[in-house]
Request: fold
Amino acid sequence: MKLINIFLILLFTFFNNVSAQEKVEIVLTELSEKLQKYGYGFIYREAKKYSFNSLKDYKKYKGMKGTIVGEKVGPLSTKFYVILLKNGETVYSEIEEQYDPFWISGTYLVSDFNKANELVGKFVWVNKTRYDSHDLVTETGLTHKTANIEKLQVLGVVARSLPTKYIAPFYLKVKKETGEIGYISYKCIYKENPLKKNFNDKIKKLIQQQKISINMTKEQLLLSWGQPRNINESVGSWGVNEQWIYESQYVYIENGVVTSFQSQR
Reply:
């Protein structure tokens, strides 16, 4: 009876620390030669963020599947994903709330990988407004410049790390309309052309150059500069006024239309 009570207490403690959520399947991706010596440095054996606690054995874990089964609060109120690996180990990775949901360095989501494969043979458009956006990279590290909303043809999907500033979970192998072939992160594309037919040519060109102008709509501003760091809003009889803050840039919007902008020096 005592053993049963102890078991129930331990079980309650575990689920009290792990929030219920949909189970998400992941794969530990293939790393470049330069990164292999570090192993999977952002995945830990305990819910503690120490380098000596991470999965250093790259060969053992490369390509291993796992499932995110919940969350756990560690020291200093740090939140971790709880991951059950296929070999039976339970490991942890810090939840980085500024990134995409279930983003864990050195892994990719099985659901995303399956969706990416559905794009082979189709066209996608570059999204350069993301924090992790990049030009097309090649196996040798050379790059091919791309414009915002540039059209690309998807040739395949590659599940390994490549030499970009932000290591993507996996990449699309793509071809520019001018013939150059390279790789782009799956997260840095639109699956449909976001430039609507009712956008005039001047607006389309500005968005592709990532510039803005007076009388742009909020939708067009988002396509050009992406999400702002902060939004201040005031509401009155005149309507809704907003201030969008981009690093050192301030954009002022009245009733959904850009009326002015300024730079901080």
